[in-house]
From TrEMBL:
Keywords: Lipoprotein, Signal
Residue ranges of the region described as Disordered: 31-55
Biased composition (Low complexity): 33-49
Name of this chain's protein: Lipoprotein LipO
C-alpha cells in the first residue's frame, strides 16, 4: 500500500508506506500444508508450521528537492520499487519518508524532540551529529557496524575520517567516489564571444562582464529580461551560491563544513574568524550590494526561496553567470532547449589579492547517516546500508535499472534513453537515495565518450561532452580544497550553529539589497554575535590548537 500525505504546514511531503509480509520457506510441504520431516529411525513425522519471521520495518529519510517531473512521485518510481522489493529478500520492510530539503534542520529538530524521527536520518553537518550524540539521541553504531565487513570495506576511506564522537561511532558517512566536484562558477561563452570578451579572472573583471551583459544584451533576450547573474534566495536549499566571487576577495574556507553555503572564514595567527566578521568578507558584501543596486542580480532573488525563479532563468536562456553545484554540461542541456546555441563553460577561481586561486571541492565523505535512539532496530539500518553496497544494488540506486536506464560497457554505464531517465532517475540524481556512496569515480575522456555512446549519437556532441567534463575535473584537481575536518566535541557549536546559520540567511540577504550598507552590515554583525558567533569562532580556534599539538 502506498500512502501519500498532502501538504502540511511544513511544506509538501510525500510518504511511502509499504506494509507487506515476507515469507521464507526452506522445506517441502505435504498436501495438508504441514512440514514433512524424517526422524532418525526413518519414520515420518509431522511438525506444525512455524510462523514466518516478520521483516524488520525501517523508515528512511529521503530529501524532497522539488525536482520530480510532472506526474511523478515516489509512489510510482521504479527505483524506489526496486529498493522495497529487493530489501524484502533480506528481511527488511523499507518505508521512505520524504523531507523537504529547505526544511531539513527545522523538521529534524521536531522529529528528534518528539521521538518520531525515521530510523535513518541524514545530514551534511557534523555539528548536528555531535549535538544529538551529546544529548543521547543517537545509537552508538560500532558493534552493529562490526557485523558488516562489506560496508566497512566499501566506505573505509570515509569511515576513517568522520562519524566519531568522544571515541564512539554515531554516524556512517557516505563515500564520495569522485572528489572533483563542488560549487563552481560558470558563464555563457556564447555571450562572451558576441561581446569579444574573455572569461573573467578577477572580481573586477566579473563586474565589467556583468555590466556588459546588462547593457549590451548579447543574447538578444531583451534588456528588460536579461539576468547577468542568476542567484536564488540565500537559504538552506539554495541551488546557487557565491563561493567563487567571495573566494576572490580573499575569504578562505579554513573552518569546518556547515550549512551556510559560502566560504567559512579565515584562520590567521592562531585565530579563526568567520567570513562575515573579516575585512575581506565585509568588502565582498559591499561589492555584492553595489552589483545588486546596478541591476546585475535579479531584483526578486530574495523571494526565490525554492530556486524556481533561478531555474527558470537558466532554462529560458536569460542568465549569463551562475555559481552552483551543476556541471557546465548539465546547464548546456537545460538551456539549449530554449537557446540551441547556448554554451556554458567553467570559470577558473579568481586571482585573490595575494595572487592565489582557490575553490571548494568535496571531501572523501559526504552525507552522514545516523540512527535516532527512537529507532527500535539499529541493526536493521546497518543491514540496509550493507545491502546497498552490493554492486548491483548500488548501481541501481545510483543510476536506475540496468537494461532499462543504462547498460554496462566494460565497466562504464552507458545511458540508453535520456528522456526516459529523466522520468525515472530523478529520485537518485542528487545521491540522496544512494546513502552509502555518492557517485562513481571520475571518468577519463575515453570512458566519458563511451558513457554517452547511445544517448548522444552525434560525434561532435560526444566530443563536446567529454571535453567539458575533462576540463571541469582538471580545474578542481588543480585548485580544489576540501573543508577542514574537526572531529573533536564542540559544545558551543552544538548550541549555536542553527541560530548562527539562521541569522546569516536573513542578514546577508538584507545586506545585499540594503540602501544603507554600513548600517545594515552592522546590524547583521550584531545579530551574528548575539547568536553566538564570536564564541563559535573561539571554539574553532581552540580546536585547531589542540589538533596541531
Amino acid at each position: 500500500m502506498v500512502k501519500v500525505l498532502k501538504k502540511g504546514v511544513l511544506g509538501s511531503m510525500t510518504v511511502i508506506l509499504m506494509l507487506s509480509g515476507f515469507l521464507v520457506a526452506c522445506s517441502n510441504k505435504d498436501e495438508g500444508g504441514s512440514t514433512a520431516t524424517t526422524s532418525p529411525s526413518g519414520s515420518n513425522t509431522t511438525t506444525p508450521s512455524k510462523e514466518p519471521e516478520k521483516p524488520a520495518k525501517i523508515r528512511v529519510t529521503l530529501w524532497d528537492r522539488s525536482n520530480a517531473p510532472e506526474g511523478q512521485n515516489l509512489g510510482n518510481n521504479p527505483i524506489i520499487k526496486y529498493v522495497i522489493d529487493e530489501t524484502k529478500k533480506v528481511g527488511l520492510d523499507v518505508e521512505f519518508v520524504s523531507l523537504p530539503r529547505a526544511q531539513e534542520s527545522e523538521k529534524l529538530n521536531v522529529w528528534m524532540a518528539s521521538g518520531e524521527a525515521p530510523d535513518i536520518i541524514l545530514t551534511y553537518s557534523m555539528d548536528t551529529i555531535f549535538k544529538y550524540a551529546e544529548q543521547g539521541g543517537l545509537w552508538e553504531l560500532d558493534s552493529y557496524l562490526a557485523k558488516y565487513p562489506d560496508l566497512i570495506k566499501n566506505n573505509k576511506l570515509a569511515l576513517d575520517q568522520v562519524g566519531m564522537y568522544k571515541g564512539k561511532r554515531y554516524a556512517i558517512p557516505a563515500l564520495k567516489a569522485n572528489t572533483y566536484s563542488g560549487p563552481n562558477m560558470k558563464i555563457r561563452k556564447d555571450w562572451l564571444d558576441a561581446l569579444g570578451m574573455k572569461n573573467p579572472t578577477t572580481n573586477e573583471e566579473l563586474y565589467q562582464v556583468l555590466k556588459a551583459f546588462k547593457e549590451k544584451d548579447p543574447g538578444n533576450v531583451g534588456k528588460d529580461k536579461v539576468i547577468p547573474w542568476a542567484l536564488p534566495a540565500i537559504n538552506q536549499s539554495m541551488k546557487a551560491f557565491y563561493y567563487g566571487p567571495m573566494f576572490g576577495f580573499g575569504v578562505n574556507m579554513d573552518g569546518p563544513s556547515n550549512q551556510f553555503y559560502a566560504p567559512d572564514g579565515n584562520y590567521k595567527n592562531g585565530v579563526f574568524t568567520s567570513s562575515v566578521a573579516t575585512p575581506e568578507g565585509k568588502a565582498y558584501y559591499q561589492w555584492m550590494n553595489k552589483v545588486y543596486k546596478e541591476g546585475l542580480i535579479s531584483k526578486e532573488f530574495v523571494t526565490d526561496v525554492s530556486s524556481q525563479q533561478f531555474t527558470q532563468q537558466v532554462n529560458s536562456g536569460v542568465a549569463g553567470f551562475v555559481d552552483s553545484n551543476d556541471t557546465p554540461w548539465n546547464l548546456n542541456v537545460a538551456t539549449r532547449k530554449s537557446v540551441p546555441t547556448a554554451t556554458w563553460v567553467p570559470v577558473e577561481p579568481f586571482k585573490r589579492p595575494d595572487g592565489t586561486q582557490l575553490m571548494s571541492k568535496v571531501s572523501d565523505f559526504s552525507m552522514l547517516v545516523a540512527v535516532p535512539k527512537s529507532s527500535k532496530n539499529p541493526d536493521a539500518v546497518l543491514k540496509y546500508l550493507n545491502w546497498m553496497v552490493e554492486p548491483k544494488n548500488l548501481a541501481t540506486v545510483q543510476s536506475g535499472i540496468e537494461g532499462v536506464n543504462w547498460k554496462d560497457d566494460g565497466g562504464v554505464k552507458v545511458q540508453i534513453d535520456p528522456e526516459l531517465n529523466k522520468k525515472t532517475t530523478w529520485v537518485s540524481l542528487a545521491g540522496d537515495l544512494a546513502i552509502v556512496q555518492q557517485g562513481g569515480p571520475a571518468l577519463n575522456k575515453e570512458q566519458l565518450l563511451k558513457s554517452v555512446a547511445l544517448s548522444l549519437p552525434d560525434e561532435k556532441q560526444r566530443e563536446e561532452y567529454a571535453n567539458s567534463f575533462v576540463t571541469y575535473y582538471e580545474i578542481f584537481k588543480k585548485y580544489g580544497k576540501p573543508n577542514t575536518v574537526i572531529d573533536s566535541p564542540r559544545p558551543v557549536a552544538q548550541k549555536t550553529v542553527a541560530a548562527i546559520e539562521k541569522s546569516l540567511y536573513e542578514g546577508v540577504s538584507k545586506v545585499i539589497i540594503s540602501t544603507d550598507f554600513e548600517k545594515t552590515y552592522a546590524e547583521m554583525l550584531a545579530s551574528w554575535e548575539r547568536a553566538g558567533g564570536k564564541d563559535y569562532d573561539k571554539e574553532i580556534s581552540e580546536a585547531y590548537k589542540t589538533m596541531k599539538k
